[in-house]
Amino acid sequence: MQRISDKRKPMTPLDLVESSIEEGLADPTIDYLDDLPDDVEMSLFDHLEELRQRIFYSLIALVVGAVGCFLFVKPLVKLLEAPARGIKFLQLAPGEFFFVSLKVAGYSGLLVAIPVILYQIIQFILPGLTRRERRLILPVVAGSTLLFLAGLVFAYLLLIPAAVNFFMNYGEDVVEQLWSIDRYFEFVLLLLLSTGLAFQVPVIQILLGLLGIVSAKQMLSGWRYVLLGSAVLGAVLTPSTDPITQTLLAGAVVGLYFGGIAMVALLGNSQGWGRLIGAISSPFTKVNKTTVTDAIAQAPSDTVTEPATIEVLEETPTVDEENTQNGVSDLADLSQIEVENQTSQVEDTDIENQTQVDEPEKETTQLEATETTTENQLTSEASLPPPPVEEQAVPEMLPQRFLSKVTGALFTLLDLWCEDRGEVAIKRAINIKRTGGDWTEVPDLCYVSYERLPAGWMEDQACPTAPELVIDMISPKQTFGELVDKATEYLEAGVLRVWLVDCQARSITVFYSDARPRTYRGEMELTDPLFEGLELIPELLFRQARLPNAG
Question: Above 70 in pLDDT, residue 222?
Answer without folding.
Answer: yes
